[in-house]
Design goal:
The longest helix has 13 residues. The strands form two sheets. A seven-stranded mixed β-sheet has the order 4-3-2-5-6-9-7, with helices on both faces. Helix 8 crosses helix 11. The chain has two domains: about 190 residues, Vaccinia Virus protein VP39 (Rossmann fold); about 60 residues, rRNA adenine dimethylase, C-terminal domain (Helicase, Ruva Protein, domain 3). Strand 3, helix 3 and strand 4 form a beta-alpha-beta unit. Helices cover about 35% and strands about 20% of the residues. By secondary structure, it is of the alpha/beta class. The chain is elongated, with a radius of gyration of 20 Å. Bound molecules: S-adenosylmethionine. S-adenosylmethionine binds next to strand 1 and strand 3.
Length: about 270
C-alpha cells in the first residue's frame, strides 16, 4: 500500500476494537445498500462487506482503488467508484431505493461532505460517520450548551443525531491531532421536518441569531423580526440565540415576512458554525 497522503485527509483506522464497534453500530444486513465514503485501505470496507455481502465504496485516491479491489476478492460484491463524493449524485445512485452511508471521513472536507449527503436525505436510511469530536459535540449540542450553534440547529432540524463512540488519535495511522467521534445521523421523516415553505426563513433567522450570539434576539434579529413578533413566537426577545431550541427557531421563522427574505441558503446548507 502507498504511504498515507495528508492532502487526502488519510488517517487509516487500525485498532480492531474500534473497527468492530463501528461495524456493530452499523449492524449491516444482507439486503442493505451500503455506500462507504473514503474506504482507504479497507479497514471498514472488508468487515462491512463480509456482513452485508455487497457494498459500494467511493474513493478519491486513484492509487488505493486496485489494492482495495484485490483485498476484497472472494469476500463479497464490492463496487469501487473512483470519484470525489462531492460530485456523486447520491439520490440518483439510490434510484428510488434507500442507501445507508458510512465512512471515516477526511476531516479537511467533512462539513461539505456532510451537507452534500444531507441534500439527498430522502434517499438515505442512516449515516455513520467518524468526524472530529469537536464537530460531533457541536452537532449534538442542546440549547444552553457552550457549543450549541448554527450547526446544531440546522442538523437537528434535519436528522436525529446520536454520538456513539469516542476514538483516540492512536487508533489511526498516522494519528490525527484531534480526538474523533462516531456519530449516527438518521434523517427525519418528512412529517417530522419543518414545512419546506419555511426552509429559507429558518436559515435566515438562525444565521442572524448566531451571527451575534452574545446579543439578545431583540438586537440580533433587528430588521427581521420586531419584539412583538418574537414574543408571538413564544420567545422572550431578551433571550440569546444559544437558549432557543430548534423548534423555537421554526416558530420564529413562521413569523418572518417571506417578502423580506433575500434569496439564499437552503435549510441544510453549509452551516459550519
Ligand atoms: N476508511 C478508511 C479507514 O478508516 O481507514 C480511510 C479513512 S481516511 C480518514 C479518509 C479516506 O477518504 C481516504 O481514503 C481518502 O483518500 C478518502 N477521500 C478524501 N477525500 C475524498 C473525497 N472527496 N471523496 C471520496 N474519498 C475521499
Amino acid at each position: 500500500m502507498p504511504p498515507p497522503k495528508k492532502h487526502f485527509g488519510q488517517h487509516f483506522l487500525h485498532e480492531r476494537s474500534v473497527i468492530e464497534r463501528i461495524v456493530a453500530a452499523i449492524a449491516p444486513q444482507p439486503d442493505d445498500r451500503i455506500v462507504e465514503i473514503g474506504p482507504g485501505e479497507g479497514a471498514l470496507t472488508l468487515p462491512l462487506l463480509r456482513a452485508a455481502g455487497r457494498l459500494t465504496a467511493i474513493e478519491l485516491d486513484a492509487e488505493l482503488i486496485a489494492p482495495l479491489r484485490a483485498s476484497a476478492a472472494g469476500i463479497g460484491e464490492l463496487e469501487v467508484i473512483h470519484a470525489d463524493i462531492l460530485k456523486v449524485d447520491l439520490a440518483a445512485m439510490a434510484g428510488g431505493g434507500k442507501l445507508r452511508l458510512a465512512g471515516n471521513l477526511p476531516y479537511y472536507v467533512s462539513s461539505p461532505i456532510l451537507f452534500h449527503c444531507l441534500s439527498a436525505a430522502g434517499a438515505i436510511v442512516d449515516m455513520h460517520f467518524m468526524l472530529q469530536k469537536e464537530v460531533v459535540d457541536r452537532m449534538a449540542a442542546a440549547p444552553g450548551s457552550k457549543v450549541y450553534g448554527r450547526l446544531s440547529v440546522m442538523l437537528q432540524l434535519a436528522c436525529r443525531v446520536e454520538p456513539l463512540l469516542l476514538v483516540a488519535p492512536g487508533a489511526f495511522r498516522p494519528p490525527p491531532k484531534v480526538d474523533s467521534s462516531v456519530v449516527r445521523l438518521t434523517p427525519l421523516a418528512p412529517s417530522q421536518r419543518p414545512d419546506s415553505a419555511y426552509t429559507q426563513a429558518i436559515a435566515t433567522i438562525v444565521r442572524a441569531a448566531f451571527g451575534q450570539r452574545r446579543k439578545t434576539l431583540s438586537n440580533s434579529l433587528h430588521g427581521l423580526l420586531d419584539n412583538h413578533a418574537i414574543r408571538a413566537a413564544g420567545i422572550d426577545p431578551r433571550a440569546r440565540a444559544e437558549t432557543v431550541s430548534p423548534q423555537g427557531y421554526i416558530a420564529l421563522a413562521q413569523r418572518l415576512d417571506p417578502d423580506g427574505l433575500q434569496a439564499g441558503p437552503k435549510l441544510v446548507d453549509n452551516a459550519s458554525q
